[in-house]
């Protein structure tokens, strides 16, 4: 029985380090190759030694697919391709390929700088890795090899995020990566066609949550920024270069416009251009509104948001600054934070999660006195706010996607076990499909029932409909014919046509059986007795009703294709041998008659 | 109490019945717990008598890969521990007396091997593999003798699919002195395995055997046959009747299996890829213990590469089938080019050199060559060009070489203009490698300089892709070695060109929005300075001064770090040149009194404004910068205060400069912010005043600073068990936050 095997090396009942191995029809694919933000040691990367016990990774894996540029989905890629030694193809969308190295470079810098690690991937490795990447377009069917094909669908979430359909023959798997079913300020909603995959592997971050409207959080954010600016304070928003930053920029830009605010908004130097460049380049990946208005006004060319110079931080009066990096662990955002932290009028808004050990993490967990690089105590008097702006599908969205794609099985990853359990039950109840949630290192096997399309010849179809009742649309119909498998195609034709096409002569296969009967009479008399017996049975037995029994001039008897002949026994004069034969079509009748004859002939049937 | 707890946790009825047992991490923790107990005999007895060992047997087939693998490892550990701590007399081959616990495990292994369940057999083979890999004691042979026949039978039985595990088992055994030195049946078994296993499975075993110095000759021949058979088939398929000698002796082996694998679409590419990977592995060994038939191997390789690009379509049935399968097969192309590159280092291939370059050039020129394949072609070509150069020195083959170089540069020109950044970048990297290795060759320099390549390379300094700009910077930097900095170069005299190039790189350093090109510029400057290319001392001083003015404002800490490295080299060169310290490379030791030199070099450093950069860096928010700056200042102090005649900090007194220094020391102690660091002159610290600076060097407690910088690391903390827990700890229990990680 054909099967699909799925083994998560990361993201199985967990968030972070997404890495899922899929075996489908003899092909092995790795979905995402992420790192875990919570670990500093070996555990930060998936344990690749489990992929194959012998042989090279490059020979075992047919390809690696990366769903989007977040580090928990691509952070281990340079390690995997340049240090572990995978040398095969890697697929991702064009925006992901463009943005991925920036985040990887950022991650490398932090690790090498803050943690002083030396045995880590280098910039050169990131570049070499990116050179192996094949970029794909949305809805473009990419042929990895002759049998394996992949196709990307829009996933929302972040710029360039994609869901991937992996198809071998008629078996297929869809992997969602992270997705968002509702459009936000700059991206659209995820979409997939009714592709009916054998398996849908979906993220389940918000498995039990129906999220309130994003509007609420946006209002809250604007209110806090506005209040601070009104009272003359400065607002620092630490962000990563791309992603959430653009969404918040659009939000503030519109708000400033509407409220006619004058306080300056700044964005880290170098990054505005870069972000702008990518958003312009990949404008087709943004939402409809941005695309529509792009011709008149590029949403990413902000009127109120200007490039930041480090000297501006000392300017008096209110201002809002977007600075990188997002966790206040180094660089410009940390420098500005140090300057502004002592003033209670100021505010820092953390729009995302911060890793332990970073200044961002410390202030969010309530520390008010920070030891900076071990030598100076920095007192934090400014206000500290946390705001969630992550873009994942909620429970409703996940159900909606399942409804859209109509998978035969669902597998949950990228979430918490307890919540997955709840969603799993819901999915099984509502869609009557199996739902799985393997832990890391556990293999789930799904048996597929690949339907094989067969062409049927018109002649056969006409003949079959002529015999049977008129065809009904939704009722399966059994058809008999000869299946020709030739040149990778399957055709059902009538036996005659098959013989003709293949240039073969027809042979008939008959089942034969000998039945011994105690009867001292001559053979033709025995035959007559058999005939009479069967004749009698036709009238009395329902099974034989409507069958005509014939006695042929040569002494043999026929019932449909069944032929019975009586011969003498070579040694025993008192015994006659009945030779019974029949074709496979009359298998049932033949067996029945044989068993009937084996019971012997009744007396007085001569 | 402890005993009861142990029984509850690790006993027969302990954890299995509990619902938490369903959680793989609990099972994994259980295995880990048992593992850490297994260093004490009572624990071993407890495990065996309490039924714990049966739990481990079950866990070998656990649905979690991690648990199953850990259980296997644990059994190996328990077995080894039991035998090594419980046996008193050496175990003999006959009626040996295994300790009770070892007995249980060995019986389990034997039973599993005899069972009809493939998964049980696989588990036991895995267990044996890791046992023989980790334990080389003589008793392993006793164990082996008990199961040898059973294992042997797997080689011939086709019902059990355990081929690759068998190969792995034999491979691990061959590395154990217990077996590879044995007189017994081991080597015949290996030979038989090499014969019977499918070529793909036998490959790793064959390489393993060939890497051993002590394996018997006939086994080595068999192993080599396994690796060379596919290459031999290719050679035969490529030319019928064979033009050249084959790779293998006619008498060795039957090629029909390999031929049928090569003519099947599903197995051809994977067999070739794996064979090529094994060959590369063998070639990469520092001292290859075997002599390969290099020339024939090269012929076979070029045939594969020609099958792949459609240049070779032989008439033989096998040849035409293979050529149909391999055409445009990137996987095979990549593997073949890797081996080709590795073969360039073998110095015995000159007869086929011409055809190798034909193939390489065809790949370089073809528009169908994919980016990844092109990169590998570049790598192979550079290696072969280096080997051609070495050969032509002795062989006067330069005419051929010149023609090849001309062709290479012609095709390089084309690739430098490619629309794909990957291709432009790989081309630049290729050029840099060539210059690195061949820059001393006149013919190479001439060919390069007479081509369009240098001009195109400079134009790529303005490439839209930052990776390409960075590679262009490096290539231009290396080009300078053969243009502006080479004494005999025709371009040397052109001062304005040289200044233009330096100015262009300076501009990139100060204005490029991306880190890579800026980092590339600073590394090239470092290289130039190291090689003494930046001119006279005075030029160099200005050059360094200008560079650090630019660099100290850079947002990328690696660029600033590069700046510090530049300063470090400059300092040591200046000190050497002025003879302050006995420089190991100085041609003549200076006769001038050291105080004069001291003064002179100090003035140079102050004029170049190095101290301001160094002291600022001490307060940098990126730790490596502070550490490096501190190291440099420490070494400068050693130069200026060779004996321990450090100044007393009190000496500086109340003069304005004294106050300034006191401020500086305070600031450094507090680790003040870089941006709070005063601009030069304010607060009375004049970083350009030699007198001030020499006092600062003598009075500031750099050792303490150094220790502090190395110690403080508030970023390495204990890893949280789970990211989610971490988030909860950070932002409280608002449900939404729990999952808002990325």
Q: pLDDT under 50 segments of chain B (min length 5)?
A: 585-591, 713-724, 733-742
Distance between the termini of chain A: 56 Å
Radius of gyration of chain A: 37 Å
Shape assignment of chain B: flat
Proportion of residues in β-strands of chain A: 15-25%
Question: What is the straight-line distance between the termini of chain B?
Answer: 46 Å
- Please report the first level of CATH classification, the CATH class of the largest domain in chain A: Alpha Beta
CATH architecture classification name of the largest domain in chain A:
4-Layer Sandwich
Q: What is the name of the CATH topology of the domain at 1-180 in chain B?
A: Leucine-rich Repeat Variant
Helix fraction bin of chain A:
25-40%
Q: What is the global morphology of chain A?
A: elongated
| Number of separate structural domains of chain A | 4
CATH class of the domain at 1-180 in chain B: Mainly Alpha
Kindly describe this structure.
The complex is a heterodimer of chains A (606) and B (742). Chain A is α/β, with parallel strands linked by helices and 606 residues long. Chain A has four domains: 3-210 and 391-447, Ribonuclease Z/Hydroxyacylglutathione hydrolase-like (Metallo-beta-lactamase, Chain A, 4-Layer Sandwich), CATH 3.60.15; 214-386, Rossmann fold, CATH 3.40.50; 452-466 and 481-506, no CATH class; 510-599, TATA-Binding Protein (2-Layer Sandwich). Chain A is 31% helix and 24% strand. In chain A, helix 3 packs across helix 5 (123-131). Chain B is mainly alpha-helical. Helix content of chain B is 68%, strand content 0%. The two termini of chain B are 46 Å apart. Mean pLDDT of chain B is 83; it is low at 585-591, 713-724 and 733-742. At the A-B interface, helix 4, helix 5 and helix 10 of A face helix 5, helix 9, helix 12, helix 15 and helix 18 of B. Chain B: Its main location: cytoplasm. Chain B: This is BRCA1-associated ATM activator 1.
């Amino acid at each position: 029985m054909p099967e699909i095997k799925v083994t998560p090396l990361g993201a199985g009942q967990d968030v972070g380090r997404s890495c899922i191995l899929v075996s489908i029809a003899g092909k092995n694919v790795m979905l995402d190759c992420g790192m875990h933000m919570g670990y500093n040691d070996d555990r930060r990367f998936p344990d690749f030694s489990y992929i194959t016990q012998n042989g090279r990774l490059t020979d075992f894996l047919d390809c690696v697919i990366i769903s989007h540029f977040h580090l928990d989905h691509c952070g281990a890629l340079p390690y995997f391709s340049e240090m572990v030694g995978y040398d095969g193809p890697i697929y991702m969308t064009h925006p992901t390929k463009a943005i991925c190295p920036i985040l990887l470079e950022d991650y490398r810098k932090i690790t090498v700088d803050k943690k002083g690690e030396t045995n880590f991937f280098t910039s050169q490795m990131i570049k070499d890795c990116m050179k192996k990447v094949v970029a794909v377009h949305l809805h473009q069917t990419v042929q990895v090899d002759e049998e394996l094909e992949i196709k990307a669908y829009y996933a929302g979430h972040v710029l360039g995020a994609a869901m991937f359909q992996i198809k071998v023959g008629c078996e297929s798997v869809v992997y969602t990566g992270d997705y968002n079913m509702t459009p936000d300020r700059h991206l659209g909603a995820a979409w997939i066609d009714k592709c009916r995959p054998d398996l849908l592997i979906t993220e389940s971050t918000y498995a039990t949550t129906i999220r309130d409207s994003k509007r609420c959080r946006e209002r809250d954010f604007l209110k806090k920024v506005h209040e601070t600016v009104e009272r003359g304070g400065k607002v620092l928003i630490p962000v990563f270069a791309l992603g959430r930053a653009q969404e918040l920029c659009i939000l503030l830009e519109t708000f400033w416009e509407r409220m006619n605010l004058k306080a300056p908004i700044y964005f880290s130097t170098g990054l505005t251009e870069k972000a702008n460049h990518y958003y312009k380049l990949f404008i087709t990946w943004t939402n409809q509104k941005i695309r529509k208005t792009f011709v008149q006004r590029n949403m990413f060319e902000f009127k109120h948001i200007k490039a930041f110079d480090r000297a501006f931080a000392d300017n008096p009066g209110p201002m809002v600054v977007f600075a990188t990096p997002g966790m206040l662990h180094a660089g410009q955002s940390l420098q500005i934070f140090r300057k502004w932290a002592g003033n209670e009028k100021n505010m820092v808004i953390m729009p995302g999660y911060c890793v332990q050990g970073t200044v961002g993490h410390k202030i969010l967990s309530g520390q008010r006195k920070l030891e900076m690089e071990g030598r100076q105590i920095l007192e934090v008097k400014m206000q500290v706010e946390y705001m969630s702006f992550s873009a994942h599908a909620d429970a409703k969205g996940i159900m909606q996607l399942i409804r859209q794609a109509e998978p035969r099985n669902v597998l949950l990853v990228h979430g918490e076990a307890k919540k997955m359990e709840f969603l799993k039950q819901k999915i099984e109840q509502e869609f009557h499909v199996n739902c799985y949630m393997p832990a890391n290192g556990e293999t789930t096997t799904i048996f597929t029932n690949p339907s094989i399309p067969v062409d049927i010849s018109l002649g056969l179809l006409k003949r079959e409909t002529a015999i049977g009742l008129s065809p009904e649309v939704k009722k399966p119909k059994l058809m008999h014919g000869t299946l020709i498998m030739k040149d990778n195609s399957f055709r059902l034709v009538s036996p005659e046509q098959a013989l003709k096409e293949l240039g073969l002569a027809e042979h008939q296969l008959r089942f034969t059986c000998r039945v011994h009967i105690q009867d001292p009479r001559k053979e033709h008399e025995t035959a007559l007795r058999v005939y009479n017996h069967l004749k009698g049975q036709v009238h009395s037995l329902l099974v034989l009703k409507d069958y005509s029994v014939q006695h042929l001039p040569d002494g043999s008897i026929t019932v449909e294709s069944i032929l019975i002949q009586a011969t003498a026994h070579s040694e025993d004069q008192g015994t006659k041998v009945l030779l019974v034969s029949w074709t496979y079509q009359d298998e049932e009748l033949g067996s029945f008659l044989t068993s009937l004859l084996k019971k012997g002939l009744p007396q007085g049937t001569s | 109490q402890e005993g009861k707890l142990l029984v509850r946790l690790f006993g027969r009825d302990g954890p299995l019945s509990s619902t938490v047992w369903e959680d793989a991490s609990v099972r994994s923790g259980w295995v880990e717990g048992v593992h850490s107990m297994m260093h004490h005999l009572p624990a071993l007895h407890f495990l065996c008598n309490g039924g714990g060992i049966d739990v481990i047997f079950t866990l070998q087939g656990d649905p979690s890969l991690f648990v199953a693998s850990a259980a296997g490892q644990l059994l190996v550990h328990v077995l080894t521990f039991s035998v090594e701590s419980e046996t008193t007399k050496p175990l003999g081959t006959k009626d040996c007396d295994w300790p009770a616990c070892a007995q249980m495990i060995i019986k389990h292994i034997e039973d599993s091997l005899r069972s009809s369940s493939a998964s049980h057999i696989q588990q036991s083979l895995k267990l044996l593999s890791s046992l023989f890999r980790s334990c080389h004691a003589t008793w392993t042979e006793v164990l082996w003798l008990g199961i040898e026949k059973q294992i042997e039978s797997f080689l011939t039985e086709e019902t059990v699919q355990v081929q690759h595990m068998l190969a792995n088992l034999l491979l691990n055994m061959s590395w154990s002195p217990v077996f590879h030195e044995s007189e017994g049946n081991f080597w015949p078994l290996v030979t038989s395995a090499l014969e019977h296993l499918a070529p793909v499975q036998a490959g790793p075993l064959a390489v393993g055997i060939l890497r051993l110095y002590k394996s018997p000759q006939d086994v080595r021949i068999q192993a080599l046959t396994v690796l060379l058979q596919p290459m031999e088939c290719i050679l035969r398929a490529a030319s019928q009747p064979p033009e050249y000698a084959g790779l293998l002796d006619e008498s060795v082996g039957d090629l029909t299996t390999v031929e049928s694998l090569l003519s099947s679409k599903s197995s051809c590419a994977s067999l070739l890829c794996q064979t090529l990977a094994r060959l590369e592995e063998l070639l990469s060994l520092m001292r290859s213990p075997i002599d390969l038939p290099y020339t024939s191997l090269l012929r076979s390789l070029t045939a594969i590469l020609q099958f792949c690009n459609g240049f070779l379509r032989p008439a033989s049935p096998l040849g035409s089938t293979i050529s149909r399968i391999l055409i445009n097969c990137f996987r095979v192309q990549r593997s073949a080019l890797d081996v080709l590159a590795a073969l360039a280092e073998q110095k015995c291939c000159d007869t086929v050199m011409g055809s190798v370059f034909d193939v390489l050039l065809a790949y370089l020129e073809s528009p169908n060559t994919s980016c990844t394949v092109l990169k590998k072609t570049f790598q192979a070509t550079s290696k072969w060009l280096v080997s051609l150069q070495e050969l032509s020195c002795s062989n006067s083959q330069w005419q051929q070489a010149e023609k090849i170089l001309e062709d290479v540069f012609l095709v390089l020109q084309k690739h430098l203009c490619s629309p794909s950044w990957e291709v432009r970048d790989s081309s630049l990297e290729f050029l840099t490698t060539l210059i690195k290795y061949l820059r001393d060759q006149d013919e190479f320099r001439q060919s390069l300089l007479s081509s369009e390549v240098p001009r195109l390379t400079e134009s790529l300094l303005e490439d839209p892709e930052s990776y390409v700009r960075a590679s262009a910077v490096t290539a231009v930097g290396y080009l300078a070695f053969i243009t502006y900095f080479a004494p005999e170069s025709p371009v040397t005299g052109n001062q304005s060109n040289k200044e233009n190039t330096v100015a262009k790189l300076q501009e990139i350093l100060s204005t490029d929005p991306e880190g890579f090109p800026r980092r590339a510029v600073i590394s090239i400057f470092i290289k130039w300075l190291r090689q003494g290319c930046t001119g006279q001392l005075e030029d160099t001083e200005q050059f360094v001064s200008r560079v650090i003015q630019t660099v100290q404002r850079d947002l990328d800490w690696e660029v600033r770090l590069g700046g510090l490295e530049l300063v470090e080299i400059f300092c040591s060169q200046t000190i050497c040149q002025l003879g302050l310290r006995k420089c190991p490379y100085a041609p003549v030791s200076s006769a001038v009194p050291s105080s004069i030199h001291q003064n002179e070099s100090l003035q140079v450093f102050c004029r170049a404004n190095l101290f301001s950069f160094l002291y600022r860096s001490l307060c940098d928010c990126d730790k490596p910068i502070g550490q490096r700056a501190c190291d440099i200042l420490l070494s400068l102090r050693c130069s200026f205060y060779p004996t321990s005649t450090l100044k007393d900090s009190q000496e500086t007194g109340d003069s304005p400069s004294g106050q300034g220094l006191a401020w500086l020391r305070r600031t450094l102690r507090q680790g003040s912010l870089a941006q709070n660091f005063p601009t030069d002159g304010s607060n009375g610290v004049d970083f350009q005043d030699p007198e001030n600076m020499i006092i600062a060097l003598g009075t500031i407690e750099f050792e303490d600073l150094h220790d502090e910088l190395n110690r403080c690391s508030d970023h390495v903390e204990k890893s949280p068990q789970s990211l989610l827990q971490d988030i909860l700890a950070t932002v409280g229990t608002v449900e939404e936050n729990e999952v808002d990680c990325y």
